[in-house]
Design a protein that fits this description.
This protein is α+β, with helices and mostly antiparallel strands. The protein has a single domain, classed as BirA Bifunctional Protein, domain 2, CATH 3.30.930. It is built from 8 helices and 4 strands; from the N terminus they run αααβββαααβαα. Strands 1-2-3-4 form a 4-stranded antiparallel beta sheet, covered by helices on one side. Strand 2 and strand 3 form a beta hairpin. The protein is globular.
Length: 224
């Protein structure tokens, strides 16, 4: 679970998102970081027995820096005011499929899959879908998947309007093939993150995404 002290630190950071405040509260930040790492460790302890591909992950592999990349952003706030955790089945591959947990007041969620793969990786995933779309159909129509996540994420920013190049517009899996990311997510009540059983509850939800991650990894590992 996330500690009350960590949440209070984030609340105060929202109201004081500047380097002067952060420097003046360095000790609090160090305590926050320790809580963050303990939070990840408790999640890993629950996830590893459920997904053996995560066994080599360490806490440091799952963290995000608190500093924001503001080079191309209109928002010049220097620090993130959310808590993110990323578990990937292949920590050595850029943008590998995995599991994500996000705490942000009013916008907390869990998710998984692969977001915005590189062009060559996207092509591999689409080829896998074109040939084995029945496998993906079975995954997203599984009753546990539907109960937790509904379906794969679909919105205007995540989909092509037409069939991708070199794929038949009449393909039976065209709605999958038009996707640019292959993710699923579920909104989570902020209060759940402070539940003493949060790690166990979150792991039971996230593991439902394992077949999707396995399918995506299979696609990415296939040689052309």
């Amino acid at each position: 679970m996330i500690t009350k002290e960590a949440l209070q630190f984030l609340d105060d950071l929202v109201a004081n998102n500047n380097t002067d405040w952060m420097h003046a509260n360095k000790k609090r930040y160090e305590n926050y970081k320790k809580d963050y790492h303990h939070y990840i460790a408790s999640l890993l302890a629950e996830m590893k027995p459920l997904d053996k591909s995560l066994e080599d992950l360490e806490v440091k592999d799952c963290t995000f820096r608190i500093n924001r990349d503001i080079r191309f952003s209109k928002d010049k706030s220097p620090y993130k005011t959310n808590i993110g955790v990323w578990f990937t089945q292949n920590k050595f591959r850029k943008n590998s499929p995995g599991y994500y947990i996000h705490f942000e007041k009013g916008n907390s969620f869990i998710a998984g899959g692969v977001w915005c793969p590189e062009p060559e990786e996207l092509k591999k995933i689409r080829k896998e879908i074109a040939f084995f779309h029945e496998d993906l159909d079975a995954i997203v129509n599984d009753q546990n998947f539907v109960k937790e996540f509904g379906t794969l994420t679909r919105d205007e920013s995540n989909m092509l309007k037409k069939a991708p190049k070199d794929f038949d517009p009449a393909h039976s899996a065209i709605e999958f093939l038009k996707l640019k990311s292959f993710t699923a997510s579920e909104k989570i009540d902020d209060k759940l993150f402070t539940n003493k059983d949060f790690s166990k509850i979150a792991a039971q939800k996230l593991i439902v995404l394992k077949p999707l991650n396995d399918f995506l990894n299979r696609a990415l590992e296939t040689e052309d």
